Amino acid sequence: MSTRPGPALISRLTSHPLREELYGELHDRPTQLLDAPLRASHVAFLATPEETDVFREHVGRLARRFKATEPAPDARFFRGKFSGYELRWEQHTEFCSLTVIRPGSGDSPFAETAFGLLPDDWIYGIPGVVVVATHAVILGRDAPAPTEAQLTDWFEGQLVVGSRITSNRAAAWTSFGIHSDGFCRYLMHDMGLSSFQAGRTLQRMLELETYRVMSLMALPVARELAATTTQLDGKLSSITDRFTSLDTPEDEQSALADLSGIAARVENYRSRTNYRFGATRAYHRLVDEILEDLREQPFPGMSSMTKFLDRRLGPGVRTCFAMEARLENLSERVGRASELLRTRIDVNIETQNQSLLTAMNRRSRMQLRLQQTVEGLSVAAISYYTVALLKILFESLEQSGLPIDSDIAIGIALPLVIFTIWRLVRRIRSHLGHEEP
User: Fold this and answer.
1) Order of strands across the sheet that contains 38-46
2) Which of 123, 156, 257, 419 has the fewest CB atoms within 10 Å distance of its CB?
């Protein structure tokens, strides 16, 4: 019979230090169970890590003020119940979000908002910069479907898009625009949602608004870089056109310096925009996933949210992708041009080195011939002086009475002297050559 280890046995095993964190990641932001009708306000703030810590503490001060549970010091998610509303705080990679939910919808859904329940002095102390602000309302299933006139009134005459969602269990409308109160608006009608589905639908809508705005954060950057990249592209073309007319090493070095300047600027732009363009890609993918998850069925005569965002959001996002690709292409072209120019410079240097080696070889041969000439002259000179000394010696011996003919003796000694001196010079040169390093 097999037995399974219980908690006591598991606790004796060594666990990975991230085990609990990895398990908890799937449950850090649970879907909230909600019942319509309700109103929600959602605000996202761009915040630095320091501002995020201040924000968390700011939420803690609100909780202490109303004697509610405070967020943990390192919490990335917090949900607390306050008097008449629930508050949800989340920390994301580059922004923090604050969601306030209150029950009921009223006759005018956006007249009394959930955000209005927060204390004014506390709101003014929130750190960070607002990038998304949204009011969302879910009408109860007993409420009649809003008429065209009501939608026009509630969305202040802006173009409204909408559709049935979640397999016809709900309907949703929005304008994707900022209204007179500074908030975007979403209206949903419960037509058979469970508590889980209501909470999930509200979360999808708030995430849709947040991520579709965040996906466009790179668009101003892309537009700003458009003129600059066009200018750099023109400079690169001008430099490559000069390649055929580079006559001197100075011209080549000047062109290479210009290419290095363009490469430095392009890489600077890429490093500054790499994260932003990557974030746009990730946010846009999330928007597509949310829209697919909503399973929209359009109303007759009204654009769905998917079609509207494909037509309006798509071009902006594609502009960002195109600028990212353009910078990468420009970087590659600069790299190829620089490599081509360096190859040309290297070939010229090798040609110059070859010419220099040829000249050095010619000088070496001339030096060798000169050295051989000098050696020949040295043999002749030494032989001349040696023979002169021998002549004096032989004449002295002849005058002293020895039977020697000095002229005949000099004639006999001359070839022997020359040969001996020549051999001696050769041996000295050979010995010195072996001693060279």
Assistant:
1) 77-82, 85-91, 95-103, 38-46, 129-139, 184-190, 170-174, 161-165, 297-298
2) 257
